[in-house]
Amino acid sequence: MTKMADNGSSVEIVEGCRLPVLRKNQEHEDEWPLAEILSVKEVSSRKLFYVHYIDFNKRLDEWVTGDRLDMKKLQFPKKEAKTPTKNGLPGSRPSSPEREVKRKVETVPLATQVPPATPVPSLPSSAEASQASVFPAVRETTTFKAREDHEPISSLTTNGTARRLIPPQPGRKRKANCGGTDEDSQDSSDGIPTAPRMTGSLVSDRSHDDIVTRMKNIECIELGRHRLKPWYFSPYPQELTALPILYLCEFCLKYLKSLKCLQRHLTKCNLRHPPGNEIYRKGTISFFEIDGRKNKTYSQNLCLLAKCFLDHKTLYYDTDPFLFYVMTEYDSKGFHIVGYFSKEKESTEDYNVACILTLPPYQRRGYGKLLIEFSYELSKVEGKTGTPEKPLSDLGLLSYRSYWSQTILEILMDLKPDNGERPQITINEISEITSVKKEDVISTLQYLNLINYYKGQYILTLSEDIVEGHERAMQKRHLRIDPKCLHFTPKDWSKRGKW
Ligand code: ACO
Ligand code: ZN
User: Fold this and answer.
1) Structural class in CATH, domain 2-73
2) What is the pLDDT of residues 444-491, one digit of tens each?
3) For the CA atoms of the chain, what is the radius of gyration?
4) Is 398 in the pocket of ligand 1 (CB under 6 A)?
5) Which of 2, 102, 402, 473 meets the CB 3.0–4.6 Å disulfide criterion with 40?
């Protein structure tokens, strides 16, 4: 409970209060969106308020001073209404990824978030679709015909279940300095408080999750030459959350509480690349495949780092069932981590990515799409189609939509007329060529609004705008995976006993 003077009167600001808060915006003008007070603290007799901007992604939550609160419009929390959960899924508004869509929409399955297709009641059943044909890919309005094997839109639901994060276990062993040994997840010798106890369970109850994880807890992470500002809570040991900077070894990802400890660690750590096998190299870009069972400490430390930027995903303490694909950029100092994705060794739901991340200093430079492209190249070698685990974050959805759109358009535009007839292709064929799961092909075609119903047939129509937009986008897409540089043999994990 906090009292705050405003125009001479004393007003109590408590958790759950709502009021407009000044949001300083680097890209646009400052604004005063409605925000909720999540926490209040006093630092040097000055009140600070942790606010969540209601319609914005949680990564923008922040501590603000009292002068940024519009006290005239203060709303008190309703007595019975508890602070709503802060673990709602991030929104997905392409035009403004920082702003959240209303929670009601957030739970809508992926396929229903996309704009409806042209006046077609549903995608064709296989019987109808087998009648369809494809128009040639020419510069003016171009149409294609889908031949067969679509599913009705109503069946395109995605599994929205997210496994939850396990909050830190109190009372873990810790060390006060850089010496000594340790029994736990971070290996020995640097005396760093250990991560929460690792457990095989991926489930925790939402209410606990809410209290523990709703606020970012790490101020800043130093990783090689980068300083990262976390977006979300990550269960690093509580003792480390008070530090102004948490230091990570950029190669083994071990966390250390001071620069001195890091320097001492670096004298002993001789890794200059992630552990595991380098399965891809082209130019300065490499991918390392890491087995979550064989390299547990690294995998757990990677998950802790990743959780700082992933709100709605599980933190996989039990890393055994996962492979981690870490993308690096090489220079004379070593192979520097740029991003990664994790992947279940066996997925009954055809997931080919569990979590995916580009570290913030590298974001919006095409690396996310490169990671996605790599994940589908692996699926191609496996001879499977795949899809990312749901739910996708707002930025995840933007990136996947962009990748799927470009991949599908690339194929449609390469189709050659068939004896002067419109080229034909089926959804299944697109899916087989790209390894993109059929549902994602369909939702992308709908999103791009390419599907038309014409004289009893389903036809894909490419407008000049779409064609030109695609060509422009592809000219900017410099980073591509070269399948020739991939050295990957898939393993049959079902035959390996317990991983
Ligand atoms: N605002 C608007 N558009 C964006 C933004 C943004 N902040 N970030 C990415 N995009 C768009 C890009 O414009 C691009 O589309 P375009 O080529 O059509 O213009 C597309 O998304 C991909 O951009 P990249 O530069 O290739 O992707 P990036 O390296 O930034 O990585 C990623 C994307 C991995 C989603 C990154 O934002 C990230 O790590 N976010 C935090 C973690 C996260 O949300 N991961 C996905 C969770 S879902 C899952 O794990 C299955
Ligand atoms: Zn190290």
Assistant:
1) mainly beta
2) 999 999 988 888 888 888 889 999 999 999 999 999 999 999 999 999
3) 25
4) yes
5) 2
